[in-house]
Amino acid sequence: FNIVVLPGDGVGPEVALAAQRVLNSIGDIYGHRFEFTEHLIGGAAIDATGEALPEDTKAACLAADAVLLGAVGGPKWDGSPVRPEQGLLAIRKAMGLYANLRPLQVSPVLAHRSPLKKEIVEGVDLIVFRELTSGVYFGEKTRTATSASDLCVYTVEEIERIARAAFQAAQQRRGKVTSVDKANVMETSRLWREVVTRIHAEEYPQITLEHALVDSMAMHLIRKPRDYDVILTENMFGDILSDEISVLGGSIGLLPSASLGADGPGLFEPIHGSAPDIAGQDLANPVGMVLSAAMMLRHSFDLEDEANSIEAAVAAVLASGAVTADLGGALGTVEATRAIVDAIR
Amino acid sequence: FNIVVLPGDGVGPEVALAAQRVLNSIGDIYGHRFEFTEHLIGGAAIDATGEALPEDTKAACLAADAVLLGAVGGPKWDGSPVRPEQGLLAIRKAMGLYANLRPLQVSPVLAHRSPLKKEIVEGVDLIVFRELTSGVYFGEKTRTATSASDLCVYTVEEIERIARAAFQAAQQRRGKVTSVDKANVMETSRLWREVVTRIHAEEYPQITLEHALVDSMAMHLIRKPRDYDVILTENMFGDILSDEISVLGGSIGLLPSASLGADGPGLFEPIHGSAPDIAGQDLANPVGMVLSAAMMLRHSFDLEDEANSIEAAVAAVLASGAVTADLGGALGTVEATRAIVDAIR
Ligand SMILES: CC(C)[C@H](C(=O)O)[C@@H](O)C(=O)O
Ligand SMILES: CC(C)[C@H](C(=O)O)[C@@H](O)C(=O)O
């Protein structure tokens, strides 16, 4: 399997290394060979080439079997004409990664670390399907001396494909989809609601579908997060809501994501950012990145047992307390990764 | 004082009545005369006139000293060509209400009802300054057979005036403003950040200013809500974030808001919606609307003592447990209002 690794900025390189170590041990045990090729993205790429997504990085990603990404961005590039995040947005678009999957399960051993009461977060098991290649992220932008604008566009086709992805996931889960929009204000949201309602009626009538407004959803996700199974939403709302719920499990450092297209390679990255304040100090939690690698094994390579093996090892390690400082532990990134590798063996 | 009352839909009429009762008792004690004139808005107006904001309602609001609004909307008008919310958006625009103030103080007696841990929410005291007459709410919308769009526009002037309002409020408070945007993606956010930074440097250098991205802010508001004093943000982000934090205090039914323009009357409404499921059953919590009336006394009529009197009465009543069902109490809207009136006397 040819895997392109984009370490990126801040803690990105440290967690990307952790994922490679874990994958190598999976390879040894199950007899697979993972070939890793590193390429530049984000601030690191800007420093080296002036561009946030150099051509050869893009070409390598498109030719790979899958892509692992650490993190991009940091205050270092604040005044820069090219921003690191442009590299992330450009690779999502270039690879056609329209479906961003962000699963959240609150581990019983970590529920006490949540800012929410234990009885509210215990047993939460949901997944966000965020549309990733359209909306206000990719619409036309203008700037004059006295004003600025951003255009949010959605096409029927863009909504259909992410809706289908969410309904299909719900079939394998508890059979419920909550579609989030702002239909009382936005035209794109009204189209969103119509299309989701139609796809549901025509293709997935056995799934339970509910619609929620983004503002009340921001409330419900804190009051009763256990009520949700699959959450389906557009790019910007997905960005905000998935970060909001990332606190439920006690640390954002735990959470993985998968970004998938119609075909072609997927991209796998932790939810957390580049965390420049702790970069290079062996402090980053490797779990979000390692679980992203597990999602890669499942979604890109169909290696279900191998993915389960990583997830079980992570659960065991979390239960044992062999964790990094964000979870109140004493281990560094390298040692926490070693604990996961040991648990796999 | 000529006050236009817009009861609106759902529980709106019940809470609007509660506010009038409380204001009448304040009038008796302090020797003021509040004249209330009711007008139609939202679904009630659509049913009666076909329009969400009839001309005479608009004219009455513009001529009033202040406006009290209950709530608008409900599933009854879901398929309707005119939506109730259009009335709310239209009156905000017509009155030029660019500054929406949403204060949140977590009452120590109610902290245990929060979904968050007591030690996290106790002592929270913040106020959101949400821009209310621009952004994606009021930009051009398009619709074709295969797509839809919403335009988000901000002018320098629109950002300047809400920024000044937030900085001025911070001067009377703990001296800190957190400006929220999505500057790594949106052009309007980059303009927002520039303008806020400039107004700060030129006019309010003694205030502490920090910038936060909306996604990480959605996280921080749950992890460390006590860190915030004044939160300054654009229309849509303000909608989402203020609903998110509304759960911190234990019930959204507690929270007031004030919408103010450059001059002319302000509009005062609770944060909660029309709650059609409990409408007409004497179940609604009157506190959010009553505290909105207190904000009216303070901001529109400069009656600081009278506003304090209402706020002290509400605090006493909450402490005594004379509350509605959303707070675990046994009182109806009418009785809970009477308890507040009794406490004022
Ligand atoms: C870095 C930023 C552009 C990005 C986004 O907003 O999509 C990030 O917040 C994310 O969620 O992956
Ligand atoms: C009803 C709706 C249009 C409104 C808004 O989004 O502004 C409401 O959610 C609010 O926050 O006052």
Automatic annotation (TrEMBL), chains A, B:
It is found in: Cytoplasm. Residues 2-340 form the Isopropylmalate dehydrogenase-like domain. It is an enzyme of class 1 (oxidoreductase). It comes from Brevundimonas pondensis. Belongs to the isocitrate and isopropylmalate dehydrogenases family. LeuB type 1 subfamily. Keywords: Amino-acid biosynthesis, Branched-chain amino acid biosynthesis, Cytoplasm, Leucine biosynthesis, Magnesium, Manganese, Metal-binding, NAD, Oxidoreductase. This is 3-isopropylmalate dehydrogenase. The record marks 137, 182 as: Important for catalysis. It comes from the Bacteria. Mg(2+) binds at residues 215, 239, 243. Binds 1 Mg(2+) or Mn(2+) ion per subunit. Homodimer. Pathway: Amino-acid biosynthesis; L-leucine biosynthesis; L-leucine from 3-methyl-2-oxobutanoate: step 3/4. Catalyzes the oxidation of 3-carboxy-2-hydroxy-4-methylpentanoate (3-isopropylmalate) to 3-carboxy-4-methyl-2-oxopentanoate. The product decarboxylates to 4-methyl-2 oxopentanoate. SMART domains: Iso_dh. PROSITE patterns: IDH_IMDH. GO terms for molecular function: 3-isopropylmalate dehydrogenase activity. Substrate binds at residues 92, 102, 130, 215. Its EC number is 1.1.1.85. It catalyses: (2R,3S)-3-isopropylmalate + NAD(+) = 4-methyl-2-oxopentanoate + CO2 + NADH.
